[in-house]
Every structure is written in C-alpha cells, then in structure tokens.
C-alpha cells in the first residue's frame, strides 16, 4: 500500500484556554481614553470657523463691489464733459485737414474735401461699376469717423507740426543711440559706418 | 471711450495750430487733471445734470462731433462754473482731497476723512450732495460706511 509508511494518529489534543479561564492580569480589552475635544465639538468648531470666514469674504466682496461701482459712476458722470472737449478738438482738427485737402485738390472739379461719404463717380448701386452712376462707398446714414488723416510733408509756416516722439516716448535712447540700421551713415557695404 | 483715438504717427504727435472758426463761440478748456475731476465728479453730476443729459441725448442722435457742439459748450460752461464755485467756497478741503487721491493711486477709499470734510463743505456752501446711483437699499452708501473693511 502507498500510505503504509505514515504514522497512524490515534488521538488529537486541541489548543484550549486553561481550565478556569485566563487570569485577570491579561488586559485584552481596548483601552483608549478620550483625549481632547470630541468629534462633534471639532466638527462644530470647524463649521463655525468656516461660517465666519465665508461671511467675512462675502462682506468684503460686497464692499469691494460698491467701491468699484463708486469709481465707475464717478467716471460715468464725467463722460459728457470729457466728450464735449474731445469733440471740439476733433472738429477743429478735421476743419484744418479739410482746408488743406481743399487747397491741394482745388483743380479737381466736383471734389468735396473732407467728405468721406461723397459720391464716387463710376460706382453704381450695389457696387457695380457704371460710369453713369455716382454712389457713396458707405451704405449708411450714420456719421463716418475718418480713420486716416493725410498730413503733407512738414514745411515752414505750415498750420500743423509733428511733435518729436521724444515728447511721448519718454526715453532718449532710441533717438540718441539708434540701432545701427537706423543710422544716417548706414549702407550695405559699410553697415557700421565708415 | 469718451475721447477720440489719438493720432498714431511714427514720427511724433500731430499738433494742429489752427483754431476753431470764428462763428463758433469760444469756450475755455476745463483744464483740471484727473484727481480734481474725480474728486468733484459726483457734484458735477448733481449740479450739471440737465446739461449733461441734454448732451448725451444729442450724442445719441448723431455720432458726428459737429452735431452737439452747442450742447457740449453748455456742459463745459457748467463745469467751469462749478469749478469756480468750488474754488471760491471749498478750495482748502477740495485741494486736500484731490492731493490725497493723487498720492493714493486715486483710490477713493484711501481718502475718506478728506472726502467727508469736502462733502460737508460743499453741502453747506453749495447745497450739493454725493449720492451713488443704484446703491443697495437699507444700508449706508459706501462713502458713508462707519467701519469699512478696505481703507
């Protein structure tokens, strides 16, 4: 037989507590004394801190909003006054531009100076090319603000002048020490000057 | 927003020497910098409300700058009149307030004590008071708040 060499077990002894139970000296129960505030108190505390913080934030946001509204309305109240000044300035400038343009174009018949919406000869309705028609390039009833202004080359005794960029650029670096390719004596043969 | 675009020239700024045509009545510029204007802004709105509204309605009619020159002159004259009155009556408090604004990046919340003195002076002398439109109801306006958070 195959199992013939194994010992034969006649009885089994099970691992059991000692007779009469374990002695009292063995502490097997959990012993965790309460330390610090209880969980409920901590949750309530954190909640309180959060309520206070969010409340402060909401108040600060409301006040900040009011401050911004105050500054915005201060500017809105000033707008008509600033606009009136700006309008007078642009009217004055465009009048001068118109006078100059009229002087330049005085030999051209039917030229209306300073009028962007003047009819263009040869331009027909719906953009067709038609020598018998004359339509404005703008299909609007509103005022059209000119985007470009032509200033002839500055001359002595002219009614306008161009202020040096130094006035608004603020730095003399580029005017007094310009990059080499902007200098007067710059040539391709002698890039750094002679 | 309120001003036309500045001309952009590579060579410099476009200076136009010619003046307005003769038939347009002359009116001086207001000539205040931004801090005094900000300081008196709410009083300007209270004193010149009719002229300003007239001007804005006129601007709504047409975007042409020539269209509202008359209304614009009225607004400017009203502003000049108010500035003269402020100079005559509340020069000291006004100067203190706008100098404070200048020194504090024009933040109104930084100059409440000066503003309070100026507002009080304008109210007693000229009868104008500052009120911010659409302020939340049931609480003091922001410039009258007792213990502001931002100051």
TrEMBL record, chain A:
Q: Where in the cell is it found?
A: Mitochondrion inner membrane
Q: Which domain of life is it from?
A: Eukaryota
Q: How does it sit in the membrane?
A: Single-pass membrane protein
Q: Does the keyword Membrane apply?
A: yes
Instruction: Alphabetically list the UniProt keywords.
Output: Electron transport, Membrane, Mitochondrion, Mitochondrion inner membrane, Respiratory chain, Transmembrane, Transmembrane helix, Transport
Task: List membrane-spanning regions.
Answer: 37-58
The answer to whether keyword DNA-binding applies is no
Which family does the record assign?
Answer: Belongs to the complex I NDUFA13 subunit family.
Function, as annotated, reads: Complex I functions in the transfer of electrons from NADH to the respiratory chain. Accessory subunit of the mitochondrial membrane respiratory chain NADH dehydrogenase (Complex I), that is believed not to be involved in catalysis.
PANTHER family tied to this protein: NADH DEHYDROGENASE [UBIQUINONE] 1 ALPHA SUBCOMPLEX SUBUNIT 13 (PTHR12966:SF0), NADH DEHYDROGENASE UBIQUINONE 1 ALPHA SUBCOMPLEX SUBUNIT 13 (PTHR12966)
This protein's name: NADH dehydrogenase [ubiquinone] 1 alpha subcomplex subunit 13
Automatic annotation (TrEMBL), chain B:
The segments labelled Disordered in the record are 132-151
Q: Where is the CHCH domain?
A: 90-123
Protein keywords: Disulfide bond, Electron transport, Membrane, Mitochondrion, Mitochondrion inner membrane, Repeat, Respiratory chain, Transport
What Pfam families does this protein map onto? CHCH
Q: Where is the signal peptide?
A: none
Q: Where in the cell is it found?
A: Mitochondrion inner membrane
Query: What does it do?
Result: Accessory subunit of the mitochondrial membrane respiratory chain NADH dehydrogenase (Complex I), that is believed not to be involved in catalysis. Complex I functions in the transfer of electrons from NADH to the respiratory chain. The immediate electron acceptor for the enzyme is believed to be ubiquinone.
Query: Which family is it part of?
Result: Belongs to the complex I NDUFA8 subunit family.
Q: What is this protein called?
A: NADH-ubiquinone oxidoreductase
- Which organism is the protein's source? Polyrhizophydium stewartii
Gene responsible for this protein: NdufA8
């Amino acid at each position: 037989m195959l199992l013939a060499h194994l010992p034969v077990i006649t009885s089994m002894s099970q691992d059991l507590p000692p007779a009469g139970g374990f002695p009292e000296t063995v502490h097997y129960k959990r012993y965790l004394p309460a330390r610090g505030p209880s969980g409920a108190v901590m949750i309530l505390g954190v909640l309180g801190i959060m309520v206070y913080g969010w409340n402060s934030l909401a108040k600060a946001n409301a006040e900040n909003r009011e401050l911004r509204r105050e500054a915005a309305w201060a500017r809105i109240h000033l707008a008509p006054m600033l606009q009136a000044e700006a309008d007078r300035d642009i009217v004055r400038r465009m009048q001068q531009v118109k006078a100059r343009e009229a002087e330049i174009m005085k030999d051209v018949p039917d030229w209306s100076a300073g009028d962007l919406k003047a009819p263009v000869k040869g331009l027909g309705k719906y953009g067709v090319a038609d020598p018998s028609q004359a339509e404005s390039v703008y299909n609007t009833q509103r005022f059209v603000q000119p985007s470009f202004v032509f200033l002839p080359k500055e001359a002595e005794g002219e009614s306008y002048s161009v202020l040096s960029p130094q006035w608004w650029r603020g730095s003399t670096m580029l005017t007094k020490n310009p990059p080499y390719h902007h200098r007067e004596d710059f040539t391709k043969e002698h890039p750094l000057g002679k | 927003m309120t001003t036309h675009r500045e001309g952009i020239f590579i060579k410099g700024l476009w200076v136009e020497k010619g003046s307005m045509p003769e038939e347009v009545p002359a009116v001086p510029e207001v000539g205040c910098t931004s801090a005094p204007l900000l300081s008196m802004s709410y009083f300007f709105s209270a004193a010149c409300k009719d002229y300003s509204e007239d001007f804005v309605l006129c601007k709504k009619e047409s975007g042409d700058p020539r269209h509202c020159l008359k209304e614009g002159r009225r607004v400017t004259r009203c502003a000049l009149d108010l500035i003269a009155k402020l100079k005559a009556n509340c020069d000291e408090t006004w100067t203190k307030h706008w100098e404070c604004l200048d020194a504090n990046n024009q933040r109104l919340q930084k100059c409440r004590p000066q503003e309070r003195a100026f507002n009080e002076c304008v109210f007693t002398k000229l009868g104008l008071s500052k009120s911010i439109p659409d302020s939340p109801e049931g609480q003091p306006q922001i410039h009258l708040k007792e213990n502001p958070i931002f100051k």
